[in-house]
């Protein structure tokens, strides 16, 4: 298997447009046309609807005010430090109208973490939600950013900081002070649009440089794959069509929430429900109230939907598509999601993407309800892939190895980090760091992060495989499997498990019960998996730590396990039994 390529040819990708010009000002032939009046955004908390005219006006008004007040211009960086907000994309597009760059920050950051991002990106303007203002003020001081360069997304009477609402009103009253630049042919390929930070699972987060062209290319890759304009497919059978309603509950500071859900959702003609913060009950209510058709999740949210008893009290019949990503999704979780969705024709699928590819790499098979168990789907049009084994040779179909990619949506590298760029972007290929296999049909199966694989006596064990199995056990609410060191085997798999509430109560009420439940869970694994995948032990925990995009913070529990092992607090199965 030398190279696999996406099956569809790509349509024309304009390379002389900025992101807002592509989304707000022109019509691409691939874009479906709305035939009925429909809001582009709906604010979840208030129900406020926002149409295209208002979006354009707010974008212009804000851009004009930023030019007049701070002379924001070419390559100036603005940082967005906020949960999801209806003005989140407006701020991004306003900065782009001025030829600037936007970096997005996790609103849960400490002042130290935000300060690092402000200094690295040389931020000139900081947009902040009032809930995060204290951390922002401390970070701005540490980064040398004056307080008058802080803009609030909502008015706050107790603060002297200006807010977006007032700036928009001011900018709309004043004569236009900026001239939006038309990019030269080819310029969008290298014109920086976003600095999105990686999750930083090893060391400090890296700033991924994403061009305007990469964002536009990925939207068109997805669109070409899902074919919303294909007249040979009856309207009721199309997975994507103008008039869809997408729930935007994933964070916009992350590529999945910003590029796939918000930007691509808009391009495909959907209304995006802007949810400021994930809450299962709030999400279920929004699905029912707004008749959401497309639901994008990360595995922890999918687990909640499958396990929570409150789900049965809500009408989910409008959902036609459930996409899960950001971490490998087990066949067991896919099957449980399938049983949870009322519509028997709703597609339940896993997709795969990275910030470094401006998000989407694969999409699920659209003509089946669940597709092949464990599959992340097929490569998008325009993507080429290789699978490289540990010895450097190319893998054959069905063989495991690291996934290497080429795509028109590839990032430009890591900002101010030539070493990391050289390690990841090699001879035109992106090294993903993910172990995968690709079958003869071109279907991609993502096993796990290579660095997270557990090596048991030279055998490789994927934590996600064991997590998927344990998740299907009736006693388990959530789970994370980590490696613990072992003199004989090198490493052994160890499970941290969150029990279902009724099982927790039972365990706390009987001194013998914890041991019995642990032994039962370990036997469950040994009954279903080969011997080198058996668990060395189980530890009960109140919650599995995760980052805001839903990825397990495996390193936290790995360090906790090793510390407990060293202090004698962790009991493991004797080596001879493994």
Automatic annotation (TrEMBL):
CDD domains for the chain: Firefly_Luc_like
InterPro entries: AMP-bd_C, AMP-bd_C_sf, AMP-binding_CS, AMP-dep_synth/lig_dom, ANL_N_sf
One term of GO molecular function: CoA-ligase activity
Keyword presence, Transmembrane: yes
Keyword Transmembrane helix: yes
Pfam (any one): AMP-binding
The entry's keywords: Ligase, Membrane, Transmembrane, Transmembrane helix
Transmembrane segments: 253-274
Domain named AMP-binding enzyme C-terminal: residues: 465-551
Domain named AMP-dependent synthetase/ligase: residues: 34-415
SUPFAM superfamilies per UniProt: Acetyl-CoA synthetase-like (SSF56801)
Protein name: Amp dependent CoA ligase
Annotated organism of origin: Dichomitus squalens (strain LYAD-421) (Western red white-rot fungus)
């Amino acid at each position: 298997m030398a190279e696999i390529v996406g099956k569809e040819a790509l349509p024309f990708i304009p390379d002389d447009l900025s992101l807002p010009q592509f989304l707000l000002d022109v019509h691409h032939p691939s874009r479906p046309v709305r035939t009925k009046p429909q809001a582009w955004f709906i604010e979840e908390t208030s129900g406020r609807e926002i149409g295209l005219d208002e979006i354009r006006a707010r974008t212009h008004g804000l851009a004009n005010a930023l030019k007049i007040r701070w002379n924001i211009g070419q390559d100036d960086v603005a940082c967005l430090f906020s949960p999801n907000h209806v003005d989140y994309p407006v701020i991004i597009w306003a900065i782009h109208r001025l030829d600037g760059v936007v970096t997005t920050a996790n609103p849960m950051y400490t002042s130290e973490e935000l300060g690092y991002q402000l200094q690295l990106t040389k931020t000139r303007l900081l947009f902040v939600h009032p809930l995060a203002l204290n951390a922002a003020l401390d970070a701005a001081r540490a980064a040398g950013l004056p307080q008058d360069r802080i803009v609030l997304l909502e008015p706050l009477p107790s603060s002297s900081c200006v807010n977006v609402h007032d700036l928009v009103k001011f900018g709309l009253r004043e004569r236009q002070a900026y001239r939006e630049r038309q990019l030269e042919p080819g310029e969008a390929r290298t014109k920086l649009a976003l600095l999105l930070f990686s999750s930083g699972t090893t060391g400090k987060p890296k700033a991924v440089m994403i061009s305007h062209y990469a964002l536009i290319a990925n939207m068109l890759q997805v669109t070409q794959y899902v074919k919303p304009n294909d007249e040979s497919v009856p309207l009721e059978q199309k997975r994507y069509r103008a008039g869809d309603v997408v729930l935007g509950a994933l964070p916009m500071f992350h590529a999945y929430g910003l590029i796939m859900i918000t930007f691509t959702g808009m391009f495909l003609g959907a209304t995006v429900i802007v949810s400021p913060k994930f809450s299962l009950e709030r999400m279920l209510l929004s699905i029912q109230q707004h008749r959401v058709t497309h639901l994008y999740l990360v595995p922890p949210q999918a687990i909640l939907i499958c396990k929570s008893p409150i789900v049965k009290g809500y009408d989910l019949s409008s959902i036609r598509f459930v996409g899960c990503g950001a971490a490998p999704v087990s066949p067991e979780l896919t099957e449980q999601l399938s049983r949870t969705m009322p519509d028997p024709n709703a597609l339940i699928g896993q997709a795969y993407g990275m910030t470094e590819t401006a998000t989407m790499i694969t999409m699920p098979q659209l003509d089946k309800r669940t597709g092949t168990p464990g599959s992340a789907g097929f490569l998008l049009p325009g993507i080429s892939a290789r699978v490289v084994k540990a010895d450097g040779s190319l893998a054959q179909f069905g063989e495991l190895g690291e996934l290497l990619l080429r795509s028109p949506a590839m990032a430009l590298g890591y900002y101010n980090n030539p070493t990391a760029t050289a390690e990841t972007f090699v001879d035109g290929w992106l090294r993903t760091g993910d172990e995968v296999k690709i079958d003869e049909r071109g279907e991609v199966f993502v096993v796990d992060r290579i660095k997270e694989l557990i090596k048991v006596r030279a055998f490789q064990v994927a934590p996600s495989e064991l997590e998927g199995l344990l998740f299907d056990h009736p006693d388990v609410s959530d789970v994370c499997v980590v490696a613990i060191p072992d003199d004989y085997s090198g490493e052994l798999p160890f499970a941290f498990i969150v029990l279902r509430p009724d099982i927790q109560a039972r365990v706390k009420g009987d001194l013998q019960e914890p041991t019995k439940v642990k032994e039962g869970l370990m036997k469950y694994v040994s009954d279903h998996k080969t011997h080198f995948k058996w668990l060395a032990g189980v530890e009960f925990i109140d919650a599995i730590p995760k980052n805001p995009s839903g990825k397990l913070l495996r390193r936290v529990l790995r360090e906790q396990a090793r510390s407990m092992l060293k202090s004698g607090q962790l009991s493991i199965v004797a080596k001879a039994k493994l």
